[in-house]
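Re: export button greyed out
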Amino acid sequence: MKILVYIQQDQGNISSISLEALKGAQEISAQTGATVTAVTFNPQTSKQLTAYDISEILLIEDEALNIYNPLHFIKAMEEAVIAESPNYIMFGHSYEARDWVPRLSARMNIPFISDCIHYKMDNNLTFIRSIYQGKFNSNWVFSEGSCIVSFQSGAFRADSLKAGSASVRNVSVDLSGVANSIKPGEKFQEAEKSVDLSQAEIIVAVGRGIGKEENLQLVYDLSKALSAEIASSRPVVDSGWLEPSHQVGSSGQTVAPNLYLALGISGAIQHVVGIKGSKNIIAINKDVNAPIFEIADYGIVGDIFEIVPKLITAIQDS
Amino acid sequence: MKICVLIKQVPDKNSPLTISGDHLSLLDSNITWASNESDLYALEEALLLKEAHGGEVVVCTLGTESALQVVKDGLAKGADRGIFISDAEFNSLDILSLSKVFASAFKDERFDLILSGLQSDDHGNSQLGLLLAELLNMSHATLVMSTEIQNDKSIKVKRELESGWFQWTELDFPASLTIQSGINTPRYSSLRGIMMMKNKPIDKLTANEITTEKLIPQVKLNKIYIPEKAKETTYLDGSPDEISEKLIDIFKNEIKVLN
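Workaround output, generated via the alternate export path:
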């Protein structure tokens, strides 16, 4: 059995989610005897990868691969897959992967099991996906041929990658025939981050359960009483009630406070990936089935509008 | 400009969800259905583009009989025509096979744009828009936060990248865009819209009208189950006053965020 793992990088900086996927491939390899080949488009990255316990590194170099363009990446990976005939092609489920891997799947007619949270070995290699916004898990297998798999951030620990030594094999690719129909421009940031939540000790976070903008006063009052920073899930930002810089999750900031107090947050996986590093998570939500309770240390099934005002008074009195 | 919007019917956020006895699906009977949230941003973007540049907006869904409602809702909000793909044969197909069904249904449509939400709130594959881009030979962009038509050849889109980064990308028509939530403010349907919806055409397509190679799902769902808890959660109960007291105790003595 053969596994290809694509290693995402930006100017030679390896994306940690790719190393997590590589760790996943190492674990699968240990159980199945599969060979693991890392694929990169960057020479510096290929050198860094030689320090890991993998079979080899495939370095595909072309000027057109220096900057991300989905059509170039797809063509380069397509050639690699044709040449190597892997059983599995693995990715970290990054925003970049989301922008080209499904198209690779259609191009090659190879199914893609996306955004997996883990795998397990039964009779077959089984991939686990979180579905219905984190409410359920699901097990997936593929029947024959090859399969593309991507792993969600945090599925494996990159710092436990097994060290070793691997050699680099250079391959070339002809990208001259690739269509020029997608022309990515420069990357940019909208504004300086006005709120840096990454260092916050206490965070009061608010979600859809706040209902309307006027109700945010409650959150301001509680955060003041606790000297906490304010964070939110995506719907609150989408509604324009808080600035995007308050958003925590896959499209926002990643936090690791001592206390993360989640008010009316359901706990969709896109949010949860940003708070996994919190030491203590306390969740108040009126829905007993809200997935936020899966990761909460303390859960309160109740109405934030009844509990939070009492809590503010109690903090002020204490 | 001819714009297609893909809208999926998914359980409403507050709907109860129960796993069926075979652990392969959910019990339909107690689900309250809704249009997938990010697809509604895609629909709004299509309607705004049509209002600014003219053309036609077609809403399309694939699903069981109940999913016809999302097409009707789209028409009531201002779309011109509906395509409703429904057949028991499609129920157990994987996303790659389903994309071939859509591609077959669209092969004579020559859409300039296909818009869909970035991800469905049920299975969340985040793949259909790109699968279709490849099968229908369109350019594509994901996580689109803004659109600007350049001319009749190209469109510029602002894409959301990770950690607060963005990127403008220029795409040749035809293009398939997956729309990030928050790009606009989706409208509600008006009473007049609901009245007008009744006279708008809906093409209903079944496996008889879809011509593809034989579709065999290559990926199979084995089991749906409730996740094992990663942590032992301690639940606090009582009156709001009692809960507050317990929280204060935890703040002071366990987490030590209060003196």
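Chain B is about 25% helix and 30% strand. The button fix ships in the next patch.
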